[in-house]
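ingest -> fold -> write
write: protein_1
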Amino acid sequence: MKEIMIATKNKHKVEEFKAMLEPLGYHIKSLCDLTEDIEIEETGTTFEENAFIKARAIYEKLHIEVIADDSGFCVNHLQGAPGVFSARFLGEDTSYKEKNQHIIQALENASDRGCQYVCAIAHIACDGKESIFIGSIEGKVSHKSIGDAGFGYDPIFYYEPLHTTLADVREEEKNKVSHRAIALRKMLAYLEGR
């Protein structure tokens, strides 16, 4: 079994990575498994920069194979916001219920409700070789929150092929089409081809 460290403390992300990687023979560890509390400041201006900041910080400490993702919700009408600030949008302590409601209200009279989920996964191999994999999906900002599965902005991300939001479908369905799944598939194709 191949062990990969995921540079995150986000339990939802760890669950998604485990659901997608463990059936393929990967053993997933995360920052939650470490005794030392490692704080990483995301100072990048792009998803790629932030993913590499996290991956490099862990690789420099542990020198093991590591992946880190940075992902976010980009709304056309808000000029791509919240974007790289998705987790910190309206303040880190603001609930996603409030963030989602704020975005719904901001788009009340918007003609363009288009949005994207974007995920950048940085991979650093045991020998220090770096790679980046990008996944994105297009959607529309829903007029109201729908569903209670998923996390983050999923209740307002209306995904046309599923005819509902990503919070209104089973995890297995979401994990087939999500931005993270697309980036992960690209990474796995690269890893299998090494």
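write: protein_2
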Amino acid sequence: MNAWFPRVTTHSLAIVISVLTYVLTTRVERDRRPPSIAIAWVLGLIALPYVVLPMYLMFGRRKLPRRISPPLEKRPRSNHWAEDLIESFGLSPAASSDVRFHRDGLESRIGLIATIERATQRLDVCTYILGDDALGREITGFMVACAQRGVRVRLLLDGVGALQLPRKWAQRLNDAGIETAIFSPLLARRTQGPRNLRNHRKWAVADAERLWAGGRNLAAEYFIGSAGVAPWSDLSFELAGPAAAAAAAQFEADWAAAGGKPASPIMAAECHYSGCRTQFLPSGPDQMEDTVHALLIDACFQATERMLAVSPYFVPDASLETAMRLAVRRGVKIDLCIPAKSNHILADFVRNRSLRALSNAGVSVHLLSYMNHAKAVVFDESIAICGSCNLDSRSLLLNYESAVVFYGTPQIEWLAHWIEDLKPGARPFDATPPGLWRDVCEGLLLTVAYQL
């Protein structure tokens, strides 16, 4: 009894310290978390304090230390609620841009090469993965040629994405005149924040005037496929206009966070663009709000007719799932296109609970017979969103992501038709209730779904 009592007291003290650490850190940093995530951390700290407390200290923070923002200036309201919402986050206003979407990987490859070749002063490339394959080597070759004609070329690669590259790839690129930086390397502390906050942004910016962006990493499966293997279906686009300058400014912030040498501002040429209104929308730990997540929820309540969505992974948090359910119950027609089998087995497993709830509420879930990596959402004739953000909690609440919001009718309809064309040949989701063990396993995995 005497030996047992100190052990119980020590364990109780460990639990108290663990929970207190969680409470104090979240309150000091004013870290707002979805209830399911907060409950998962607290239960873990109570059940296994010696294991979960170190995990929380390493991976638990979701936002970087918050800067105190000045009060928002009163400004005239725009003609669109989404423009006002995005500007309220302190982000760039919407402006006219010339836009060209890519229907497949071949068009995207041509657009990416054209963006690289048009750079005359600076080329900034950000990607999660640079493939050690034919496509990766080809694009690297064009970047080297760009550097050789006197353009400053910078490549920002995520720390996890860099793991698959040969050890000396960075030195070879530097020798060829390309500056490289690794964002949040796993074994270094150059980048602020936990190691699980990944940079998933994907773009190439030429002279802060032209932007190539979307969901494609710079690897063969996203563009041309490999021998005997078809490329994944995906979306990307080219854009010329102020949204490109906003992407360049965001790249500069990411580059500095990764320890890169800053660049001098580029004097933009006086250009007038007659295309649709677009707005650059970054999301992630460096933003005061969960910007894309907030826009999606607001759009669900603003929608009156339709929501079309495509995403490779679908593990929404409770608030987005609820917003979609309430929208469809109000009569909004919602079509969700996702692969029947993606390249992430756990994400495919845990998504089923949300899919059953949404399907039973009236959402049409279309399971594609091939891998689709595209990320886009269309609401009514009002807005369309396309970029690197998946419809899962990791993308919407943890990763550094980016998207472009389109307000022009031709661009909205182009994306709507692209998503609609996915539906023929897809099979409906089976919303049959699961057995006990599957239901328990889904619930357990969903407690960490935001980390998947």
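write: annotation protein_2
The chain has 15 helices and 17 strands.
Residues 4-59 form one domain.
pipeline exit 0
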